[in-house]
Specification:
The protein is an alpha/beta fold. Helices cover 32% and strands 30% of the residues.
Length: 236
């Protein structure tokens, strides 16, 4: 076993995680995915209540574990999965606040890239890297899976920010192809870039910022099934 595992945040053994890990923000959504979709699901992590499971979906071995909220939390968990546990692909299955015209609750967004106004990337890379990209192959697979399932989706960029409560004007970001605002994707893409691994973020619209429409916490936990199905279908 690697000297780095178990980590302070993950109690799993080497080999407990599949090559692909789905990462919701909410530990309860991780449990929901395992119970609803996996066969022979095994709990492999429960440190701090951040539940991680490994099981089988349509014959494929796949894992799911929560990332928590924000770039620092996503940064810790995705770093350890990529660098200590041999995970090759992470698919974020999260929520986002939409800023594009005509946005509807539960729309599926595929984040080809992430802008960020955070200093996270600067602290890691010692340069002000404001834009990070998903793996093109995973983006293409997500697009194909959405089309095959006849699901409404949009491909574009997200803005990853450290602040949930703020007064940032979004018009300028809309002009750069930003579809939505969220808090984790840029950290995931940065860690994938550094580790030479693959990542993509799929987000379901939980809030429409212009209109104030929003889903409840229970709806965010249990009703993102279209996005989850797409993520499971593209797991490698």
């Amino acid at each position: 076993m690697s000297n780095n595992i178990p980590t302070p945040h993950i109690e799993a053994r080497l080999g407990d995680f599949a090559k692909t890990v789905l990462m919701p923000g909410d530990p309860k959504r991780s449990k929901f995915v395992a119970e609803k979709y996996f066969e022979n699901a095994v709990l492999v992590n429960d440190v701090r209540g951040v539940q991680g499971y490994t099981g089988y979906y349509k014959g494929k071995r796949v894992s799911v574990m929560a990332s928590g909220m924000g770039m620092p939390s996503m940064g810790i968990y995705s770093y350890e999965l990529f660098n200590f546990y041999g995970v090759e692909n992470i698919i974020r299955i999260g929520s986002a606040g939409a800023i594009f015209d005509g946005a509807k609750l539960r729309d599926i967004l595929i984040a080809a890239g992430a802008f960020t106004n955070s200093s996270y990337a600067y602290r890691v890379l010692n340069e002000q890297k404001m834009f990070l990209s998903a793996d093109n192959g995973l983006v293409e697979k997500a697009v194909a899976a959405c089309k095959k399932a006849n699901k409404k989706f949009k491909v574009g960029n997200v803005l990853t920010t450290d602040f949930f409560y703020n007064d940032i004007p979004y018009d300028g970001f809309k002009d750069m192809g930003v579809l939505a605002v969220e808090m984790e994707t840029a950290a995931l893409y940065l860690n994938a870039f550094q580790a030479n691994k693959k990542a993509v973020a799929l987000c379901t619209v939980s809030d429409v910022i212009e209109t104030g429409e929003r889903l409840t916490s229970a709806e965010r936990e249990n009703t993102f099934t279209d996005m989850i199905g797409i993520a499971l279908d593209i797991a490698e």
